[in-house]
Amino acid sequence: MRISIRRSRGQRLIAGVCGGLADTLSWDVRVVRGLYVLVSISSAAFPGLLIYIILWVLMPED
Q: Potential cystine with 22: which of 29, 44, 52, 57 (Cβ 3.0-4.6 Å)?
């Protein structure tokens, strides 16, 4: 089974990264965005902005 993660065109605020992850996981996009922000803020070891930019570049658009 191959999982294809793509950036979302319909559920984007900036680049569609969280929207694409939400589509792949079949989760509500607000939950994914909230978890991403919480993990980014609460963990010094998880550079949220850098990871987001990397995913923006590497994930193909839907």
A: 29
